[in-house]
Amino acid sequence: MCYAIPGKILKIEGKLATIDYFGENRTAAALDIIPKHGEYVYAQGGVIVKIVPEKQALESLKEWENVFQELKKIDEQTAKTDETKFTREIRQAIHKANNSIPLSEQEIIGLLKTEDSKLETLLKAANAARQKQQGNACCVHAIIEFSNNCKNNCAYCGIRRENTQIKRYRMSVEEIIARADYAVNKLGFKALALQSGEDEYYDEEKLVEIVKGIKAKCGALIMLSIGEASIETYEKLFQAGAHAALLRFETSNKKMYEQMHCTSFENRIKCLKELKRIGFLVATGALIGLPGQTNEDIARDIALARELEPDVHSFGPFIPHGQTPLASERKPSLQQALKIIAAIRLSTPNAKILVTTALETLASNAREKALASGASSLMLDATPEKYKQLYELYPGKTTAHAKIEEEVIKTIKLLKTIGRAPTDLG
Ligand code: SF4
Question: Which of 144, 264, 148, 153 is nearest to 201 (CA)?
């Protein structure tokens, strides 16, 4: 199974390529792979990740063409809404989105205050906005959690430094590259997140070796999720071929941030801005349902994410972990998390919104519900089975014992049912 559709290069201007996908034109950056006019490529997150031999591309396109049109129809059908049921706040959000006027924080709060009786209408409006802006594309990335060691001590995190109950692990450089090779070349992923705690064992040299080793074997977008590494290190990693970075700001409330972390809020925001300056595709967002968090905080989180202009919005629920100072706090409901996803979609219509793996712990159908409430991207856990249950940022991880091969089949089946194409069209 393939998580990208090959597109044909129509034009290359500098580092920007125009690509044709079944008559729809998209643009993508040619950062370290420079195709020629007429060649076929895979692109992910707006970056060309591989040149595809013509014969292979044409075979894949033949397989995809009918399926793609069929899925589109299903998606269009499921995204239909009854606009007469829209609340004043939804109507206002859609009007502003159509005129490219950003929603104010007060207007976002208005959406977050949607009553339970109107929640379904809000979620459906967000799904329609997603369909209008992005069609039925749904990026499916793999994530490899390569170390659960961390020098930090974030109050909500199960792998924090002071948790002495957890069994720690580190994957070797060779193991990480081999697993990436399997995820890309055997399972078909075209985007790969590499995640760890802030683990100084992996110094700049090792990280560069990992990125270069993966690039040498895999045509895929490499996303780093390694915390606040130095800007010099991130620059070297970008040059080595990693072109995306996941770093959440967790909360826009500075006081709350500094109560939960041993690092500064300013530094986190500075790091995010530097990542953009270097050229990384950036994924960021916040935790939903932190103790003491208000609708005002969440509206500010959504506004801050919009200001930072990330390529992917990653908002996941706070799930209390027994070995942390927040063990006795409550997790948010699925309804609350969906409402926030819908508010992000309506306030930032063209956003790519990730269904986080933490969100999937809230209910067995959380993934499907989130995709029907404005979300447009998934991450499957491709960490080797012997490690994945040890990467316990939060308890109840749904994929702790799941085999990635089975997850892939389950995901493709779900996407087909709801009319989403498991692809990122450049
Ligand atoms: S949230 Fe990240 S930085 Fe904080 S303790 Fe957990 S792994 Fe470390």
Answer: 148
